[in-house]
Amino acid sequence: MRLLFLGGVRTVTGSMHVLETEGHRLLLECGLFQGHRREANLKNRSLPIPFDVNMIDSALLSHAHIDHAGNFPSLAKKGFDQNIYSTPATRDLCSVMLRDSAYLQEQDAEFINRNNLYDPDLGPVEPLYQEHDVHKAISQFVSVDYRREFDVSPKIRAKFLDAGHVLGSSIIQLDVKTKSGKTRIAFTGDLGRKNMPLSNDPEIPVRPNYLIMESTYGDRSHEPVSDMKKELSRVINQTYQRRGKIIVPSFSLERTQVLVFLIAQLFREKEIPKIPVYVDSPLSVRLTDIFKVHPDCFDEEVRRTIESGKDPFGHANLKYITSVQESMALNTREDPMIIISASGMCEGGRIVHHIRNNMGNPNNTILIIGFMAKHTLGRRIVERQRKLRIFGVDRELNARVEVINSFSAHADKGELLDFVEQCGKELKGIFIVHGDEEQSLALANTLSTHGYDGVVVPFPKQFIEID
Ligand SMILES: [Zn+2]
């Protein structure tokens, strides 16, 4: 059999791999490439699959992030009609995330056409996919709970293990029958961290022979998880004393729910004053509703909160906002408050309005709790640039900028090594994917110096034979 690495290799987005066995071709992930508009558009339109999509016999998905799941509607649009296996929470999150993605694709196409940014030889562009393509893809999902084995083909048995990264995220374990017995392949998807709020700790596959593993932070160490709540309490209290507002750009999936959970805990423990909290993002509100119907995915702490009759994602001082009028009404308020909004990197959406309205006042705080890619407004805020260009106008950044790094939902260098060490001694090959090139190469180097053989950082479109 062989593995084919198609996307999310030597880069972080666009995850896509194929396992070819005798008689079955299995797709792992179908992620969207994210980056500069033009480059992303071109890459996503020409799916990097080197054969007809009807030659794929089944697909498995580790979690609902768009860089892992976001191109399944294109696959469905091109005629792929087989099962897409995931956990139940991943399927439910995908139905919301992919519809949101279709809406963004339609807006994107409209922008390109309105501003004549398309290739004149080819004419106006169509959206990458639309809502009806999402509905088709969602109808192909087959949900299987964690730790329930299922047959993908007569020779491939699969199982999802908890990856502890976001709600429903999984490590995919595949047992392939071979002439000499069985080969176990484990694909980490995105690997979470121990002791994170809401999630269980990542599970460890039992003695896999091959690992396909992520390396987002292959060469970096995070602040300890225990800092998260302490730092959050400090920032809220200090801003409250200045009678300022706290503006938090936050990813809608998982990061917002973790933040809301910790703030509700701090209220109950009387560590922070009764400051109003607004979650101002329609997508975050829809995703939080899905969290509420999957108590099976939470750790002991959240389950205890639910069993004691409390809402882990609600509190008397916390309000979820969907309407534009309510969102705009926050602009005129002068009292201290926390506004959590999207997008996570401040590239669009309601957060940009909140930043524009509050960045000039030195009593306010912009609280950064997520990764900010180069060339985003979020990155310029992290760099504390004196002037920021928003909606075509340069504006002064006088608000305080606080950065808390401990919120990361990806295992760091030490945690990745720890994971491999716990996988046992039967590893014959480790394929490092899903990381910027220097991060992937650094992790490969760390593993080799710890005595692991067969560590490879594949190139895009590379085939690797395994046995
Ligand atoms: Zn992810």
Q: Your description of this structure?
A:
With about 475 residues, the protein is an alpha/beta fold. It has 2 domains: about 1-220 and about 410-465, Ribonuclease Z/Hydroxyacylglutathione hydrolase-like (Metallo-beta-lactamase, Chain A, 4-Layer Sandwich); about 225-405, Rossmann fold (3-Layer(aba) Sandwich). Helix content is about 30%, strand content about 20%. The protein is built from 14 helices and 22 strands. It has helices spanning about 35-45, 65-70, 70-75, 90-115, 130-140, 225-240, 255-270, 280-290, 300-305, 325-330, 350-360, 375-380, 415-420, 435-450, and strands spanning about 1-5, 15-20, 25-30, 60, 85, 140-145, 150-155, 155-160, 170-180, 180-185, 210-215, 245-250, 275-280, 320, 340, 365-370, 385-390, 395, 400-405, 430-435, 455, 460-465. It has a 7-stranded mixed β-sheet. Helix 1 links the parallel strand 3 (about 25-30) and strand 4. Helix 4 runs antiparallel to helix 8 (about 280-290). The longest helix is centred in the N-terminal third of the chain and has 27 residues, at about 90-115. Zinc ion binds near residues 63, 65, 165 and 190.
Write the topology of this structure.
Elements: E1 2-7, E2 16-21, E3 24-28, H1 37-45, E4 58-60, H2 66-69, H3 72-77, E5 84-86, H4 88-114, H5 131-139, E6 141-143, E7 150-153, E8 156-162, E9 170-178, E10 181-187, E11 210-214, H6 227-241, E12 246-249, H7 255-268, E13 277-280, H8 282-292, H9 300-307, E14 318-321, H10 324-329, E15 338-341, H11 350-358, E16 365-368, H12 377-382, E17 387-390, E18 393-396, E19 400-403, H13 413-422, E20 429-433, H14 437-449, E21 455-456, E22 462-465
Parallel strand pairs: 3-4, 4-5, 5-6, 10-11, 11-20, 12-15, 12-16, 13-14, 13-15, 16-19, 20-21
Antiparallel strand pairs: 1-2, 1-22, 2-3, 7-8, 8-9, 9-10, 17-18
Helix pairs in contact: 4-5, 4-8
The structure holds zinc ion.
